[in-house]
Amino acid sequence: MSKPMLQRGTNFSHWMADSPATLAQRGLCYDDFARMARYGADHIRLNISHHMIECDRPPYGLRSDGLAVVDRAIEWARRAGLAVILDLHNAAGMSFMTPEANAIWVDPVQQARFAGIWRGLAQRYAAPAYDHLAFELLNEPTATDPADWNHIARLGLEAVRAVDSERIVLIGSNSWNVPCTFPDLEDFRDPHVRYVFHWYEPFIFTHQRAPWVDHLMRLNMVVEYPTDMPDLSDLAATLPRADWREQTMLFSEAKLGFPRMEEWLKPVLEFRERTGAPVFCSEFGAYEAAPMPSRVNWYRDAVALFRTHDIGWSNWDYIGDFGIVGWDRADKPFREILFPGPAEPSS
């Protein structure tokens, strides 16, 4: 297989989120890889927790039981004709869920562990048989100072390059990979690096009533797409935190639709124009609480946006609350917008 193109893929989320002991609960198998290939995907983004692949005691290093599971998934992808993005979804001292507690930015031990993971993975997958792999250094970094993330990203990139000079490496922007932080992202001047953003715009639509987003749960709004938003001042005033009120007011009286999507994407496009480097969207999706007709409209616009600007993508995700299929493996109505391959025969 040649170097991965990474034009259209999906996230196999949560499957390898914890440790090898949890895998039996996830239920993915070769048929899921083959199904995505039939749908027209060219890659899978494989989200891997450091708990899955890293020993939790000094001298740390990589754990063989977790890697055996990753190896199997990589082989299934190869058999199905799919590339794989190995996405380190968290690291020691860094989780997108705990920005206030992340210590990797100042802790040299955790920084060394991060670099060690990537050095070890680069060594393990250096053979030509793994040419279908790309490495995404870290999912949704949350550094207060973007220079701290640029420093950590360089450590990871240098760890890979000490072993492999041509592996495709994906590096996202700071603050959950949002497009507006691209001006602070370093250009590493490496021809095999692609720069990553995540796309959940407009957030008040894509994450409405999501139980892990406190202010949207409190608002408890039904938001359609596209739509003209009302004045949200009174609702925002009921929220107890200033940052929640500010996030809500970003959408007060806003016109949610394709033109605004293009505005939000501008920092990514300007980075690409300034650096000449390729960009990539490794997550985008709308949570299941959004009305289904509006989800269909939103996915149609998101895919059109990426097509218009020649950007490859991986949707979030394959199965579950955002998934293109439900837990019963039945297609969601927007699946064909993303992956127009033939539907699976009914059982």
Q: What is the level-2 CATH architecture name of the largest domain?
A: Alpha-Beta Barrel
CATH-defined superfamily of the largest domain: Glycosidases
Alpha-carbon distance between the two ends: 33 Å
Question: Under CATH, the topology of the largest domain is which?
Answer: TIM Barrel
- Helical/strand content category: alpha/beta
**Please, how many helices?**
13
- Beta-strand segment tally: 10
Order of strands, widest sheet:
1-2-3-4-5-6-9-10
CATH class of the largest domain: Alpha Beta
Low-confidence stretches: none
% residues in beta strands: 5-15%
Give the mean pLDDT: 94
> What order do the helices and strands follow?
EHEHHEHEHEHEHHEHHEHEHEH
Bin the helical content: 25-40%
User: How would the global form be characterised?
Assistant: globular
- Main β-sheet: number of strands, strand sense, barrel status? 8 strands, parallel, barrel
Rg of Cα set: 20 Å
Count up the domains.
2
Please provide a written account of the structure:
By secondary structure, the protein is of the alpha/beta class. The protein is 37% helix and 14% strand. It has helices spanning 30-39, 50-53, 64-80, 108-124, 146-161, 174-177, 203-206, 214-219, 233-237, 242-249, 258-275, 292-308, 335-338, and strands at 8-16, 43-48, 83-88, 133-136, 169-172, 193-199, 227-228, 255-256, 279-284, 312-315. The strands form two sheets. Strands 1-2-3-4-5-6-9-10 form an eight-stranded parallel β-barrel, surrounded by five helices. The radius of gyration is 20 Å and the shape is globular. It starts with 7 loop residues before the first strand and ends in a 9-residue tail after the last helix. The model has no long low-confidence stretch (mean pLDDT 94).
